[in-house]
């Protein structure tokens, strides 16, 4: 299968190691991965701010860059959800529809499409997993705690089977960190307070790392951790899963 690697603009600019880890991990899983060099922002920031009508150029560019791939994989739940729900192209709507159905968040792609049950990596640290809202409630990457239903988490499933990792059980598994895209700009004080509350849960469990599948949420918490001079670090799940991949277990 031909995989198009979709890297969010903020990851490309500020956290390129996440993009590299995603690329390397997919290669280790046997995928033929390509990175379209002319890809740009998917348009989510504008849409979140009420200017979705101005994202037509972003949409057309996305369709042009990812038209040839069987699947499109991205290490960001929020960007994936935006493309799934908002991508359109007046000149080629049929192709845009195909792309909307072909784009997947990284852990979703690994568990649901590749059918990989575990990745034999080694990460000897105490880790707290942040379940970002778009991925959890939009992409259904994990169960929402307010529902009376069996719990599942695709990211947690992959992390829990790695050797050496101590994955803690947080008090509030799916509490929002307060980032919310442009919300953190327009409602800065509320956003920061929510981020501090989310971090307190991790601090209470004395984690060394906070991980997740959305670098935007991790970036928000990283800023708070740095300002508070906390020893806790943030790390994207792709970097953990790619740490020392040796053996793959298929369902």
From TrEMBL:
What would you give as a GO molecular function for this chain, any one?
oxidoreductase activity
Q: Coiled-coil intervals in this record?
A: none
Q: Which GO terms describe its cellular component?
A: cytosol
Residue span(s) of domain Cysteine-rich: 4-83, 127-221
Kindly provide the name given to this protein in its UniProt entry.
L-lactate dehydrogenase complex protein LldE
Organism, scientific name: Flavobacterium fluvii
């Amino acid at each position: 299968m031909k995989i198009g690697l979709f890297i969010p603009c903020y990851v490309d600019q500020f956290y390129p190691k996440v993009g590299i880890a995603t690329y390397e991990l997919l290669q280790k899983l046997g995928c033929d991965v390509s990175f379209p060099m002319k890809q740009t922002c998917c348009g989510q920031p504008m849409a979140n701010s009420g200017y979705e009508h101005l994202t037509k150029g972003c949409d057309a560019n996305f369709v042009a860059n990812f038209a040839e791939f069987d699947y499109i994989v991205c290490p960001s739940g929020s960007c994936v959800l935006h493309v799934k729900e908002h991508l359109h192209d007046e000149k080629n709507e049929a192709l845009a529809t195909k792309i909307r159905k072909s784009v997947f968040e990284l852990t979703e792609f690994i568990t649901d499409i590749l059918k990989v049950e575990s990745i034999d990596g080694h990460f000897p640290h105490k880790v707290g997993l942040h379940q970002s809202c778009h991925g959890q409630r939009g992409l259904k990457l994990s169960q929402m705690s307010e529902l009376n239903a069996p719990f599942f988490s695709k990211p947690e499933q992959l992390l829990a089977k790695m050797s050496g990792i101590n994955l803690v059980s947080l008090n509030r598994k799916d509490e929002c960190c307060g980032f919310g895209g442009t919300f953190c700009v327009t409602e800065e004080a509320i956003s920061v307070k929510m981020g501090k509350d989310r971090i307190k849960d991790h601090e209470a469990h004395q984690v060394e790392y906070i991980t997740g599948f959305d670098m935007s949420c991790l970036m928000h918490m990283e800023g708070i951790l740095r300002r508070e001079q906390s020893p806790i670090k943030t790390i994207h799940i792709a970097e953990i899963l790619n740490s020392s991949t040796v053996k793959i277990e298929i369902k």
